[in-house]
Write a structure and sequence with these properties.
This protein is α+β, with helices and mostly antiparallel strands and about 240 residues long. The chain is built from seven helices and four strands, in the order βαββααααβαα. Strands 1, 2, 3 and 4 form a four-stranded antiparallel sheet that branches. A hairpin with a 5-residue loop joins strand 2 and strand 3. Helix 3 crosses helix 5, helix 4 crosses helix 5 and helix 6 (about 130-200) runs antiparallel to helix 7 (about 200-235). The two termini are about 85 Å apart.
């Protein structure tokens, strides 16, 4: 297996108003589809699967492979935006270069089988590297905030579901107690009705006494509760 490392690709355009720090740095710049520049090094790993076609079909096979790989890199980068090439779709750019190189060698019958294209280095030009880092940090912060917001929303939703289930359960229990109490009262009055029809004065007096007794019991319970709470408060 052989490897071609393209670390010096001439740019398609140059801006004389902003000369690069050195020629080698400028040679590593590539032009993207949205008219931005990026620094890149790509490596092609390939195998010669037809030695005869490869050696005898070209005057300088190694130069041919390097030039065709260079062509694939330039064309694929020119069809890609800087944001995709550097952040959001690096794998897409790598695959595009690999497909372009593979198709080109097949068309030329170069006797070459492309094994893998790899990004050795990808970065924005030094003049805008700080701004690019700020964008990356802002994107990371945004993703973090969105993730935190989704976690909070999921937590609150779960809590709301639990609170809803608790309140429904309490309401159902209260309903059952109310229905049971009402049914018990109805059965009691049905049993009491014949006696009331015969002696309403006696039954009325008994009911009054029973009502007064229950009221006094509740008052006594209330006072006992107040005394207990008072003792607890004083002990603190």
């Amino acid at each position: 297996m052989k490897t071609v490392d393209l670390g010096a690709i001439e740019p398609a355009v140059a801006d004389p108003a902003q000369p690069p720090p050195d020629a080698d740095e400028w040679k590593r710049l590539l032009l993207t589809g949205d008219a931005n520049l990026l620094r890149a090094r790509w490596a092609l790993r390939y195998t010669i699967d037809d030695p005869a076609a490869h050696v005898f079909g070209f005057d300088a096979p190694a130069v041919m492979v390097s030039n065709e790989f260079r062509r694939a890199v330039l064309h694929a980068t020119a069809a890609c935006t800087a944001d995709r090439a550097l952040r959001t779709d690096v794998e897409g750019l790598r695959a595009a270069i690999e497909d372009a190189a593979r198709a080109r060698f097949a068309a030329l019958r170069a006797g070459v089988r492309v094994e893998r294209v790899e990004a050795v280095a990808l970065a924005p030009p030094p003049t805008v590297a700080a701004s690019f880092d700020e964008v990356v940090q802002a994107e990371q912060e945004r993703s973090t905030r969105i993730s935190e917001a989704r976690e909070y929303a999921a937590k609150r939703a779960n809590e709301a579901v639990g609170e809803s289930a608790r309140r429904l359960s309490e309401a159902a229990a209260w309903r059952d107690r109310l229905v049971a109490g009402t049914q018990a009262d109805a059965a009691y009055f049905e049993r009491l009705l014949p006696h009331y029809l015969r002696r309403p004065d006696v039954v009325g007096a008994v009911l009054l006494q029973d009502g007064v007794r229950r009221a006094l019991d509740r008052v006594s319970e209330k006072r006992s509760e107040e005394r207990r709470v008072g003792k607890e408060c004083r002990s603190r």
